[in-house]
Specification:
Length: 507
Amino acid sequence: MTSKEKRPPLIVLGIDAGDHRFIQEWADEGHLPAINSIMEGGFSGRTAGPELVTEHGVWISIFSGLSRGQHGYYYFRQLVPGTYGLKSVTGLEVDAPPFWSRLAGTGVKSLVIDAADTKLYPGIPGVQVANWATHNNWDPDHFVTASEPPAVFEDIKRRFGEKLTVRENHASTFEEDLEIYAKLLTHVEKKGEMTRYLLEKDAYDLSVIIFGESHAANHQFWKYLRRNREEGASDGELTDAILNVYKAIDREIGRIIEMRKDANICILSSVGMEDDFPNAALSEALCRLLGWQAAREAGGMSFRPIDIARRLLPESVRVALTRGLSREKREQLLSDGFTNGTDWKRTRAFSIPVSYTGFIRVNLKGREPEGIVSPGAEYTSLLDEIEAALTKLRDAETGEPAVVSVSRVRELFGEDSHPALPDLFVEFKPGRFMDRVTYEGEEITMKRPEFFRCSDLSCFVFFALSGPSVTKRGQAGDISVLDIAPTLLSLIGEPVPEDMKGLPLEL
């Protein structure tokens, strides 16, 4: 930074899916001394705001400072605007550049390691490493391991080996879980070693390092945590597997902090974790039950072999036949079945196929290829109708509401929201799979899908900030996700771009 006031370096340490409740509790109990030192030396809080209407894409909003209404990302499978087709989407395809990508020509030297949902940006002074040890980076088509400059990755491979990969297995045995656990602990240690090596080679104004092992641990070992919490059972070493992965991350964070005692330190998570089951198919079930999403009638049925197979073969057989296919092929089959199994000329609203959060979209004239609902009063009236129906869904076993909340996109993000977004976000009751749900006395029976996990992401982000530029102390309350990028830019002395919706926090 040539003509500017020299600022303290900034180190951003991300804990992917680091649950704010775990972090707070375990820091208070002395398990996470490094994180606790940042909380006590500055201020901390959790995030809030409409960006947390769904757990997917939160890193994108955090890093870019752009809202979902701007970037349009909400799930790894999205409707392609202007079609009824579905597309597998990653953060790499989203037009939401992270804040460090805007630093070209500023003189700020950056170190970025495994920043989730981002790609490499040439021309930025410093080093960027992508997908060396990120969460679920086993898909080479979507998670290419590379660096900028390219020679850095070759150096990393020589010193630390090939990229680190953990593939979640939700049908695993206890012995397999022990292997995954050991691998995750190794990953944390290696990530720390590699980070310290790069930090020692140069002086960076900005460092962004993300630990993804917490994400995998939360999913993989939640079953032990939940069972021990509810039943008092013991699973030996895995009883504290999640805690120990967090402790390992904390140790590496402490070592990084020790290297740069003059730095401002920001610690944040992307989302949290909670008991959850795949209940989002209820959205489609209700849309079908009430006639909003119309199936093709017999006369309009396709006689392609694939469509005949869908109608005639039992689900177990269809699942078995697709098990060996690539993710891309499975997604193609899902998209094809969704597109061709719906009579769009009679459909008023439809549910996008998902597992957890429900996404409902109106078949709107002028927006959809065969839209039949007029904008304005008819559109609003249909949303009212759908929302009222969703609130009437009940868990047949408990009698409790099956839906926790229904959010309208245009109310959250404005009338000019990104065209890829659904019209409604539907959050279902967490904690158990609702195999029987009632609607005004009529029972809807749901079948648990083959792939499910007993936990999923919750929409709360942990945030803590401390250092020589920070005077605020204690709990800061709720912090907007969109204020994080502007705050980090201000700490390194850079202006906030006009397209960012948030503002720097008072420090």
